[in-house]
Write a structure and sequence with these properties.
8 strands, binds 3-methyl-2-oxobutanoic acid, alpha/beta, elongated, 313 residues, 8-stranded parallel barrel
Length: 313
């Protein structure tokens, strides 16, 4: 692969240190917004990491935006690990979080610890994320006690979509809001280093954030959280399935991608691609020698004359 020359006067890249949970905590204490994005493959992880994101989540949303499933329930831990390893290779700086998929931690704390351990040992993840509030506190404790940082996830928890009755905003009644606050407090007490709040009213997310001593990371939770997360395919406009209200598209990549593919198809059909610029050359001497080899091979071979000069039939 060639490296483009760096123009004179270009400032040297700022040395970036690997982000740790300690660094996330310090950023939170300084009151600086924390950034998180999903990534599921090497090139995307590389772009996101180079852009300077604090945390990369290998989210189980990959079931929908990469694998084309209708929800997140069917993705397996082995599939997640395959993608997590690719992300690890592309992102040397961001804190890497592996999302525990459905049925890899709900059975109990021991099962959860084994699954979390696989993310660390087999994919080099720095932390794991799991969905659920108070009822997950013991599980969180078990994983954290074993030395693996845990990010909680409450509000709209996609793995419970069938119980929640769809992709709905959570915590809109007084009781539901109180339950979410209690969930957040229980996760904090259990040792979560941060908590994702998904699809909750802005004022509730703000209040939960004020009551906690660990950062909240919002997705569809307004501006009052300690940080924000989006699914990368939503952010760049590569997932066209549906667009929740909270998604802001910073690019529309699906259109230009389709246009590029159509242009390629047209050029192939018309014989325009590949042209000389995109083809390899061979020098004239080597070509002449090659032609000679072919000519020699094509010439009829003369059988050697036997002793005495008599040719056999
Ligand atoms: O799987 C995922 O992408 C997530 C984020 C939406 C937080 O859980």
């Amino acid at each position: 692969m060639s490296t483009l020359p760096v123009p004179a006067g270009t400032p040297a890249p700022i040395e970036r240190k690997k982000v740790s949970t300690h660094a996330i905590d310090q950023k939170y204490r300084r009151g600086e917004p924390i950034s998180m994005l999903t990534a599921y493959d090497f090139p995307t992880a590389k772009v996101v990491d180079e852009a300077g994101v604090d945390m990369i989540l290998v989210g189980d949303s990959l079931a929908m935006v990469v694998l084309g499933h209708e929800n997140t329930l069917s993705v397996t831990l082995d599939e997640m690990l395959h993608h997590a390893r690719a992300v690890k290779r592309g992102a040397p700086h961001a804190l890497l979080i592996g999302d525990l998929p459905f049925m890899t931690y709900q059975v109990g704390p021991e099962q959860a610890l084994v699954s979390a351990g696989r993310y660390v040992q087999e994919a080099g993840m720095d932390a794991v994320k799991l969905e659920g509030g108070q009822h997950m506190a013991r599980t969180v404790e078990r994983i954290v006690r074993a030395g693996i940082p845990v990010q909680g996830h409450i509000g709209l928890t996609p793995q419970s979509v069938n119980v929640l009755g769809g992709w709905r905003v959570q915590g809109r009644t007084a009781e539901a809001a109180k339950a979410l606050l209690d969930d957040a407090l229980a996760l904090e007490a259990a040792g979560c280093f941060s908590i994702v709040l998904e699809s909750v009213p802005e004022r509730l997310a703000r209040r939960i954030t004020e009551r906690l001593g660990v950062p909240t990371i919002g997705i569809g939770a307004g501006a009052g959280t300690s940080g924000q997360v989006l699914v990368i395919h939503d952010l760049v406009g590569l997932f066209e399935g549906f667009k929740p209200k909270f998604v802001k598209r910073y690019a529309e990549l699906a259109g230009p991608m389709r246009d590029a593919v159509r242009a390629y198809l047209t050029e192939v059909a018309e014989g325009v691609f590949p042209d000389a610029e995109h083809s390899y050359t061979m020098d004239d001497a080597a070509w002449a020698a090659f032609e000679q080899l072919l000519a020699d091979e094509a010439r009829p071979r003369q059988r050697p004359a036997p002793a005495g000069g008599k040719l056999l039939a």
